[in-house]
Amino acid sequence: MLTALGFAVFVAAAVSAAGVASNFPPLPTVTPTIFDPEAPDPQQCPGYKASNVFESDHGLEADLTLAGPAWNAFGNDIPDLVLKVSYQSKERLNVRIQPKYIGSANSSWFVLDDQFLRQPQWDGRTTRYSSDLNFSWSNEPSFQFAITRRHNGEEIFSTFDHVIVYENQFLELVTNMVDDYNIYGLAENIHNFRLGTNYTQTLFNADTADALDENAYGTHPFYQETRYYKDQPSTAHGIYARNAHAQEWLMREDTLTYRAIGGSFDFYFLSGQRSDLAGTSTSSSSALDVFRQYQRGCVGLPAMQQFWTLGFHQSKWGWSSIDDLREVVANYSAANIPLESIWNDIDVYDQHRIFTNDAIRYPSKGMHELVDFLHDRGQHYVAIQDSNVYFPDPSNASDVASYPAFGRGAEVNAFIRDANTGYFYIGENWPGYR
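Given the sequence above, the corresponding structure tokens read:
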């Protein structure tokens, strides 16, 4: 069980080996800012022009150059981009746009490495002639593109009549939508199954649990669209935006706008069409096939779990002591109910601080004995791994010294800093500020 960002520190400081900060400035005064609704419309950006276009059977590559004076509203416009289009498989087309000049210092900001999240690749045989989908583009008045079905020309994505915005801290791309469109996905959130045409889904992981219309523990920048017709079968397709940065999807009556604060445009368009026994794609498409294509071709199938993970697990937030755990295990045995594993939530920590244990309620010796007891019976124990790192009071040396986990993390620069203040990036959650 992994919680999201809380009153965690994501920043580093110079810390002595004893864990006490040797260069620990006081907390800065932060003035809240509110986004100005009268701010310039990003679509006033000049957009880009494509040049040096190279087409092959496998795809297309081109340079994208800023088509006018830089807008620089939410950062700096990046003047030179690279476009790469790849017909990766019969049902999947990839469109990627990223800065032309990327070095070791900024690559992680713009490129999501394959080691963190699988990057779909060309299957080695699909061409633009055998793909279900087709990529078309124009430079008038600026670079814009569309994705259509090859067999009937149905348009599933189009940036025509809109400009592409690419700044170092702000990306925007707008696609035209059909009337009264039906899209589903963009998890995790609690919302109507159909997202609607007047709704904004923000994807920024937070420990919000069951909050309505808000992002929760995970980010899945993928949606599936189904189009229903009176006189012909429905069609379905999917779009996956491979980007881990904070982002939002603005669903409006005629458009869907995608925005992110970093990364790149890395879109995977899924046709939802299935190949028959001869390897030829059928003209029909379905939501079920879209989901299959997303899972198998984009993010990968679930990992095979250990056999014991498929058994019955007991987990609860609120157990007051190790005695509660012993009693629960005993009661399962007394009731002859199989129990593969018992879990602890943040109660096991000292004052909810990760990398500690409550010496009174969950003493180390007793926990070792309980875990050995479970292992001897073929059972398992799992402790929550919380992402919240307690931030000690910088004006209290004993408080800093009482939690060496922070000092050790800061010493090796394990935490990120607030870009505006240069100080620790601090959120509010379980450990609190003591």
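The first strand starts at residue 14 and ends at 15. Try to locate this feature in the token string yourself.
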